[in-house]
Structure formats: C-alpha cells, structure tokens
Amino acid sequence: MLEKILLLLSLSLSVAEGLCKPGVGEAYKVRFSIKTALGDQAYPWNKNEMFLFRAALAFAMRDFTNGEEFGVSDIHPCNETQRVSFWFVVTRPKTMDLVDKGTVEMAIKKSRNRINGAFLLTDKTLEFDGIYPTLAAPVSPDTPPWLIVFGVVMGAVSVGIIALLVYPLVQRKLKKNMDADDEDSDEETGVKTAENGANDGIYNSTFSDDERFTQM
Amino acid sequence: MEKDGRPNWDSPMQFVLACVSYAVGLGNVWRFPYLCQLHGGGGFLIPYLIMLLLEGLPLFYMELAIGQKMRLGSIGAWTSISPYLGGLGLASVVTSVYLCLYYNVINAWSFWYLFHSFQSVLPWAVCPINSNRTGPTEECEVATPTQYFFYRETLNISSSIEENGGIHTGQALCLVLAWAITYLFIVRGVKSTGKVVYFTATFPYLVLFIYLIRGVTLHGAINGLKYMFTPKMAELANPRAWINAATQIFFSLGLGFGSLIAFASYNQHNNNFQNQAIVVSLINSGTSIFASIVTFAIYGFKATLNYENCLDRMRLLLLNTFDLAEDAISMDSVLEWTEKLNTTYPEQFAQIADKVREGECNLEKELDTAVEGTGLAFIVYSEAIKNMPLPQLWSVLYFFMLLLLGMGSMLGNVTAIITPLRDFKIMSRMSNELFSGLVCVFCLLLGLGFTTTSGNYWFTIFNDYAATFSLLFIVLIEVIAVSYIYGIKRFEKDIEDMLGHRPNWYWKIMWAVTSPLLLIGLFIFYIINYIQGGTPTYQAWNKELVTVTEYPVFGQVFIVLLLVSSVSCVPLTALYAFCRKRKDRAYEKQV
After folding, report:
1. A58 shares its domain with A152
2. Number of other residues whose CB lies within 10 A of the CB of residue B234
3. How far is CA A38 from the centre of its chain?
C-alpha cells in the first residue's frame, strides 16, 4: 500500500516536472530584480521565497476563479537561474490539467499589486514575460494648473496697464480742479501780471528753429 | 525734457541697461554655444573676438552716434543724412515689424513652459499613457517625452506646412499675455522702458550665475566643460568658422533694426556713447561666453546621463539574455562582459547582436549632438532639468530667465517701430498710449498665425529669412552712406560736437574700409549659399520623425516676398525722393 502511494507520488512529480517546459505551451517566465529594487536591503533568494511565490500565485488563481481551491502544489516552477528567473505552469487543483495561458494572465493581472507587495517589488522589478502591467490612470484635475498661474499673471498685468493708463487722467483732473481754484482767487485780486501782458505781443518767427531738418 | 520736447532717459545708466537688455537676448544662450561646439570649442573664441573688433564695435558705435546726433528714429535720422536714404530707415522698420511678429511667439512658449512648471511631475518628464493603459502613447514612445511635449502638446504641429488646423488656444492665450506685458513696458515710452530695464538687464545674470553653480556641480558636467575647452585649432582653417563668427557678432548686437538709433535718440546731446558702446559690446560677448559655459556643463550632464542609461540598458539586456546573477555585471564592466559573452556563447549572442550594435554607448557621440535654437532651449534644456533634483525650481528659474531675455529684446524691437513712426507729424497727433496700443494689437493679431498647427513652419521661415539677408543689406548701405555719402569728415565733426574729441584712427579705418569689405564678403557669401542650396528645405515633424521637406511653391514665393519687401524700400524711397525733388524744382522754375 505504502509502496503504491509512493509510486503514485513519484509518478505525479515526474509528470509535473514534464509539464513545465520553458518556452512551450502554457508556461510563463518570471524575472525578479531584487538587488535593483532594494539595494542593500535585498533579501537572498532561496526555497522559502520560492514557496512564497507559489503561495502568492495560488492566491491569485483562487481570487480570479472565485474559490477554486488552488494550492501551493498546483504551481510548478522549473529552470531556475542565478538571475532569479524561472518558468512555471499552473495546474488545476486535484488534477494534472494545465490551466491555459489566458486565465493565468488575467489572474496575475488582477492580483498584480498583491503579488508585487508580497515581495516588496514593483511592476518593473518583478516581470512576467508577456504580461504587460496596467498603468495607473492619469490624474487630471478640473482646471489645469497652468491656467491658474496664467490667470494670476494676466490679472496682474491688466491691473498694471489700467493703472498706468488711468493715473495721468486722474492727475490731470486733480490739477484742473486746483487750477480752477487758483484762477478764481486771481480774478478776485484783479492783478494783471506781466506774464499775461507778454502774451499779447507779436510772435516773430524768424528765430524759430522748426525747419532744422528736412520735411518728410 | 530737452527744448525740442523729446523725452529723455532718466540717467545714462538706463540707456546702457536698455542697450544691454536689447543686445543680450536668446541668441546668446542658444546660438553661440552651438557655434562653439560646431567650430572646435574654445578655439572659436579667436575668430569671434577678432570679428568683434573688426565689425561689431565700429558698427555699434556708428549707430549710437547717428541716433544721438539726429535725435530722431531711423527714418528721420537717415533722411537727415540724405533725403534719398530715408528708405534705409523704412527698411529697418519693416524688418523690425517682421521680427516683432515672430519673436514674441518665443516668449509665448516660454510662458507656456513656465506655467507648466508648477506641477508635481513636470509634464515633459513622462509620456502620457495611451487609452489601453498598457504603455505610453505611440508617438511619445518613438520620440522622447520632451520632444513629444514640445511638438505635440505645445505646438500641436501638423506634418507639413501645407496642412493647417486651428489655433492652439493655450498658445494664443500666452501670446496675448506676452503682448500685454510688452505694452505694459512701453506704454509710457522711455519713462516706463527705462525703469523696466533695471530688472530685465540684471536678473538674467543672477539666474545664469545660479545655473553656473548648479551646472558645474552636476554629475558629468566636467565632460561637457572639457569638451568645450579643448580647442580644435584645425577648425580655424575652415572659412565657415570665420563667417559664422562674423554673422553671430552682427546679429547678436542687433544692428540694423533701428533699435539702437531709437534708444540713442533719447540721449542727452553730450552723452559719452563711445565708452558705453565699448561696454555694451563687451558685456554682450562676455554673456555669450558665460552662457556657453553653463550650456556645456548642462550638455555634459545630459550626455553622461544618457551614456550611463545606455550602459544600464546594455547591462540589463546581457543579464536577461544570459540569466546571470544581478550583481555579476556592474556599469563599468559592461563592455568587457560583452566581449567575454560574445566569445563564450557566440550563438546565443548572435540573437541579440543587432540590439547590441544599435544601442552602442558612446560618450563622444552624445556630446557631439550639437543643437541650436528652439531645440536647445526647449528640448535639450528641459530634458536636463527634469533629471535634476527639485526640477520644478530649476524649471521656473530657467524659463523666467528666458522670458526676461526675450522681453528685454522685445523692448528694443518695438521701440524701433514706434520711435521712427512717431516722428512723423501725422502720427504725433495720436496719443502715445493709443499708438503703442495699436502697434501691439496689430502685431498680436498677425502673430496669432504662428499659433496654428502649421505655425511653427511659418515661424522657421521668418526666423531664417525675415531678418538675415535684409539686415546685412541695410547695415552695408548704412556704413557706406556714413563713410562716403555723408563723409567721414562730417561724421567726425558731429562726434566732436557731442563728445568733445574726434574718434581715433581705429574707428575711421573700420568704418571706411574693414567693415564695408567684411559686410560685402558676408553678403556675397549669403547669395552664393542661397543659390547653391537649391530649393530651401525645412524639417517637418511627421509622427516623431524629423524629415527634411522642400518648401512648396507658395512657401518659396513668401520667402522671396519677405526679402524683397524690406530690401526694396531703399531704392523705392530713393526714387520717390528723386521724383519729388524734380517736381519741386519744376514747380520752383514755374514760379
């Protein structure tokens, strides 16, 4: 009895190993770049990390298929290299049927963040060959920020222009009011100054310098 | 105010700063470093300084003298020298109008970039994501994010000059702002301009200094500086280096537009413009050299960064193909590993051999990419800035500096239009503010054409043809007119009247002999170049590829129109003056 079970087990193991062939069928390649991501804090890759990977992937399959009881034994890795990259296939629980690539891809896509988080890695440092990460949607604010700055500057410039245009007019008005007051006070005293008298003279144009340059 | 009612600068310092602000412009930042790189680094300084002495200084001095003596804008000044030469001033005004039309568009772009710097992630640092959210948009993937931001989001450029779309509203808004600020600066004439130039002339130097410190401390900057300062003396034998030095000095000082005449016309009669001319010219050249040191530091940083990124890409490619441990290959050992793997695993290496050849990393090649003009200012610099720590701060500083340089030059450009036109008795009936406003609105409306989708191609036409050939022609006639028609003796006496001493033999020889000869040489060279060049071409942005396309017929006709419209002012006005004199003489005979 025991021998039969042992035989079955070893058979299933060898079958499983036969299942995982790099580059063929439903196998996916995964690549870890731990040292790039974590630098000094990098953890070494060993059997425990591999176990975590298989567990994370089993979780992803369970989550996607809504309850099908995938276990760690349903994830079969092979061809591990020093790069820390290897191929793997997924089989259905309790059978040796391979799960097709499409389903695996969608399961991984759904739980990508969780898998990344388990290893403290990102989409770039934990790569699945052939599965492209879904990038975060761009945040678009209601008013583009540049328009706000533009509005501020434009407002300031408009105020400046209006101020520069209105200021002399205001000054002229104030001056006119002051001149009107002065004239009133002069008339009251009734003094005719020499200046007023000189204006009645004849204007001699011989000495004017108007036509110094050629007329255009 | 002087007795003829002409407004004055508050102090000679304002005049000097106005000239500095006008002369020191975008060309110092984006043309001179390019020429330095093209013509052998530090060695280019030799032809540059020689040309400064031979043509830059004397012509600058001459224009200031004319403006200060005649106390009129370019049209009135040249008419005073000889009634037949009024067309010279008119040609200057026409060229200034063309310049104003397209120059403020650059300021609009600077505003656009400046406003977009107030974001947590600079928009030209990353590509926008495509609709599937699987990666960056296709166009951005092939080009770089900075190129994409400039050509697609800033310009929304069409693929050729014939295809036209609508106006880019963001650009149009920025152009309106640029003209509003220009109006604000010139609305009171020299009174407002004189105060503004204190800021526009000095602040760019502060920013350049800050950038110098930042640039020199960047990783890899030393590569760029070494590249610049190792002179390649062999380049001096190339006549192109000398021609480029001559044209650079010429255009950099802003001669021939009438701005210098206009500025000088507001001077006191006895202002010592001789020293001021020397000071301004030296400051202008010094700024060019200063700016190129900063630019080369930034180049070095960018080239080193690209080179290291390239090495990193190679490293990853090798690691992934041969499944080696991550720390097996370091950045320094990439090249030796490439060799080793090539010999040990030839078949496997052959698979990626193409990629390795394509992505070959070469620091010299990165440094060799010489860029000028808007490409340098808006693409190369923004790329360098996005890689600096705290990029928003550096971006704001840099584009603010570009704005000040551009606005400072605009002051001179617009004054060159307004001053001579206001000298006409008809125009002086209109108020100052109204006239300036009309000029600004006119230029704004025409300038909106540059904000359309094919606008950048029209911009290039204006940039390359509107103010190059005509200026050479104008200044050539100017110097011949002053030396031979007006006469050096009369000119000497006028200067003695203003300064109290005659100009010495250096100036006289330059005006009478050297400068005219140099200008004739440049003139002939331009004509030969134009004829030999065949159909003029431009670089079209066609879905991220830059393709060299020929101008269509209407484009070529337009180029010819641009040139003819300014150059023909001279003979036409001379003819008009001649006809009028004949009529007057006939009338007098009758009477």
Report:
1. no
2. 9
3. 22
In a domain, A164, yes or no: yes
> H helices within chain A, ranges in order?
2-19, 34-38, 47-65, 101-110, 112-119, 145-189, 194-198
- Percentage of residues in chain B having pLDDT higher than 90: 45
A110, A159: one domain: no
Residue A57 shares a structural domain with residue A116 = yes
Pair A26, A100 in one domain: yes
Contacts within 8 Å (CB) and 24+ apart, B426-434 = B432/B187, B432/B188, B432/B189, B433/A165, B433/B187, B433/B188
8 A C-beta contact, residue B536 and residue B551: yes
Cβ atoms of B425 and A210 within 8 Å: the answer is no
To the question of whether residue B107 is assigned a binding role by annotation, the answer is no
B382-413: pLDDT as tens digits: 988 998 889 999 999 999 999 999 999 999 99
User: How much is the mean pLDDT over chain B?
Assistant: 88
Are the C-beta atoms of B479 and B59 separated by less than 8 Å? yes
Task: Give the minimum alpha-carbon distance from B224 to chain A in angstroms, rounded to a whole number.
Answer: 29
User: Measured between alpha carbons, how far is B460 from B470 in angstroms, rounded to an integer?
Assistant: 16
CA–CA gap between residue B457 and residue B57 (Å, rounded): 34
Tell me the per-residue pLDDT of B236-249, one tens digit each, with 9 for 90 and over.
Answer: 888 888 888 998 98
Query: Does A39 lie in the same domain as A83?
Result: yes
Select the residue from A40, A41, A83, A148 to test the B interface by mutation, using most B Cβ atoms within 10 A: A83
Is B187 annotated as ligand-binding? no
CA distance B33 to B377: 11
Given a cut of 90, whether residue B203 has pLDDT beyond it is yes
CATH of the domain at A55: 3.30.70
Same domain assignment for residues A115 and A29: yes
DSSP code, position B549: E
Q: What is the pLDDT of residue B306?
A: 87
The residue of B153, B184, B345 whose CB has the most chain A CBs within 10 angstroms, and thus the best one to mutate to test that interface, is B184
To the nearest whole Å, the CA of B66 is away from the closest chain A CA by: 14
Distance from CA of A101 to the nearest CA of B (A): 19
Do A20 and A124 lie in one domain? The reply is yes
Same domain, A31 and A110: yes
Q: Is B326 or B499 the better-scoring residue by pLDDT?
A: B499
Does residue A170 form part of some domain?
Answer: yes
**Are the CB atoms for A183 and A196 separated by under 8 Å?**
no
The answer to whether position A97 is within a domain reads yes
Instruction: Look at residues B372, B426, B462, B386 and name the one whose alpha carbon lies nearest to residue B123.
Output: B386
Q: How far apart are CA B472 and CA B255, in angstroms?
A: 9
Report residue B128 as tokens. 């926008």
- Domain end residue (candidates: A128, A163, A183): A128
Containing B474, the helix (H) or strand (E) segment is helix B469-480
**pLDDT at position B177:** 96
In a domain, A201, yes or no: no
Subunit contact B323:A82, Cβ cutoff 8 A: yes
Distance CA B45, CA B87 (A): 36
Interface of A with B in 196-215 (CB under 8 A): 213-214
> Rounded to the nearest 10 degrees, how much is the dihedral formed by the CA atoms of B58, B59, B60, B63?
120
Asked if the Cβ–Cβ distance from B180 to A158 is below 8 Å, we say: yes
Say how many domains are in chain A: 2
Range of the domain at A160: 141-174
Does B82 appear as a known binding residue?
A: no
Pick from A134, A145, A216: which is nearest to B79 by CB?
A: A216
